[in-house]
Amino acid sequence: MLDTLITSKTRLKLLIKFFVSAGNRGYLRGLADEFKESTNSIRKELNQLTEAGYLLREERDHRIFYQANIKHSLFSSLQGLIHSFLGIETFVDQILERAGDVHEVALMGDYAKGVDSGHIEVLVVGEQLNSAYLMQAAAKAGTILGKKVTVYTEVPKNVQGVIVLYQKVDTPV
Hints:
4-stranded mixed beta sheet; alpha+beta; Arc Repressor Mutant, subunit A; WH_DNA-bd_sf; 2 domains; globular; ArsR family transcriptional regulator; 3-stranded antiparallel beta sheet
């Protein structure tokens, strides 16, 4: 659905990255590594999204960080569109509440590439994870979404990129 409206796969990945959660941030090289794409294609899309006002840029520690502009008039609409496209916001919230000490939740596979294939692959990294609950939640989410949902607790071989949906922020002591 969304991939036919937004034909640039790089732009779709960036929109997913920044609008799935307003707290998500990224910088050029990190995004290029995360998406397994060239810095030039990422830079071009970041510049266009920033010029349009959808993203904010902030220089810190000799890097330029980007994040969604929550004050943009279309922020809520775009975030709702991305959430509808992914169909997994409730699933991620449940994982964070009940799966254990979750450090990171990432989208992999076709959806990380911006392709609505009907198979959602989610990586959950953390300590003392409740694997039984994760499998049960994946089955339940799959039934509700009408899609196949697979949860991994370790990165499978041949993964070609991930989009981090949640990352635990370490607070200084």
